Amino acid sequence: MTTARAAPVSAAERVELMDVLRGVALFGVFLMNLVQFSSINVMSTEQQLLSLPSAPLDLALFDVLDWLFADKANTIFAFLFGLGFFIQMQRLDARGAESERIYRRRLWVLLGIGVIHTFFIWNWDILHLYALAGFALLAMRRLSNRDLLAIGLICGLAGRILQEAISEFTGWAPMTSAYDEASVLVRQQLSQAGDYFGIVANFAEWTVIDYLANGLIVGWLFYALGRFLIGAWVGRNGWITRARDFLPRWRWMACWILPLGLALEGAATLLAESPLLPDWPHRKFLGGTLHLVAVPVLASGYVAALVAAYHGKLGKKLLAPFAACGRMALTNYLTQSFVIGFVLFGVGPGLALAGKIGTTAQLGIVVMTYAAQIAFSNWWLRRFAYGPVEWLWRALTYGKMPPMRLSAVVGVASE
Q1: Where are the domains of the chain?
Q2: What is the pLDDT of residues 257-270, one digit of tens each?
Q3: φ and ψ of 88, to 5 deg
């Protein structure tokens, strides 16, 4: 019996809708990464942001973006990674290749990229989490549909609660000093001095103590795994790969689930943050709990609305340019980290704008940068089969250098 040789899939095997969804989600991830990393107690002090001429608009816009995008964009991004990994496993199995070996190698490469990214470029990296969640998904891929969905929902909802329980049980407290004003000013001083290694050391200490030692990574791992498992469940049922067959259901979800998610998240935000409500006991806890429920509901509504729009003539025309960004998601995600570093830090040609720009300016930077990424991704993929980092990922996974130029590829290779 002969077995098919493992290799990247062809362009004909791609599902463009997945690329579109991934591209749109990547915009939201970029936006919230810059906005939240620039916020109070991370790279800016409260006084600095309140003293900006744009402060009133910044405060209102921050709340709106938090309501619409916080945790929802990365939920969709993780869901799509899980869906994509599951489809890759199915294709490798169908080809008779050594699917588990190839899949594990792919995850080890992603983990390596993520660790380097975490400690040397962007300490809020998600790639290492996706690799770890991918290993867990591999072990659980033969679960029944019911178990995939049930465990996915439990992990997604209870991940952060579990992290808090671990912290309390072990006695490891969060590194609260990393979020005080003195620590923010230290990071700004390192930035102004252009001290790259000082910045790396500062954030490495923060990552080790606040993220690894106190168990925060456990909460985020379960958070990602929950979304991976739901993505696998959707992949097994063909809701995205055969989206047109389920279009009435997607449209129903867009009409009902999306407004419900917006309402739930609005209520959660008011309970957790609004100064207009009385400060009765457990108000913020209730708001946080409601947020955990609202996030997957709202993210599902967004996906449904995008799927429904994609299957309309105008919607598909408007959304099609995002597909190239989705095909080059890894390259674009890593590039966004460098853009954030360029804007906030003074290393090399960096602008060192931490504490000097508010949410309004940050939104403008993201929109302009992402428009450039869309243009570049479409230009690049008209000439090359892979994004630069996607090419490296494949080369390390399959142990050979795939042809880069389209003219050298038979059946254009892609994600």
Answers
A1: 247-296
A2: 999 999 999 999 88
A3: -60, -45
